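Minutes, project check-in
Item: structure for the 167-residue chain
Input as provided by the requester:
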Amino acid sequence: MPITSGNIIIGAGILKIGPYGGTTTDVGATRDGVEIEVSRDFHDTKVDQFPATLMKTETDRKITIKANLLEATLANLAIAWGYPASAESSGTLRLGIPSSTEEKKIEFVGKAPNGGTRTATFWRCVAVSGGGVKYVKDGEVVIPVQFEVLYDPSAPSGQEFGKIVDS
């Protein structure tokens, strides 16, 4: 993924993942930045006697995070494809239908646009990635990951999806 104004981490970074409400652990490096997309839907409020929209009310917000993992471990494949951590053990990744979607806390740490360090933390995420991984002789193998960030009503006010901190 090229470096664009939508990236929240510029260039290579580190992805940390943990259970929802728990602590995160480093699962490896990312390549080409971390992209965030925020989409919003609105409802227009109109009155019969007035020919224009009087007010807009937000009815839906969706936040999607995309990155490329540089380490093609079985644990990273499980993360990318939305399998629970228990799907990978003893060098085996079991590819079945998970009984439920596992929510994860994710953190990306890397270079901020101002040259400092940026940490982007999202409280409740669900992996929504698909696709495959291509192994190339003497080449770099990347695993595309995509997460949808869910609203967390128990988070501090104003941080219901997460927070991004520059230092």
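Outcome recorded: Helices lie at 74-80.
No further action items on this chain.
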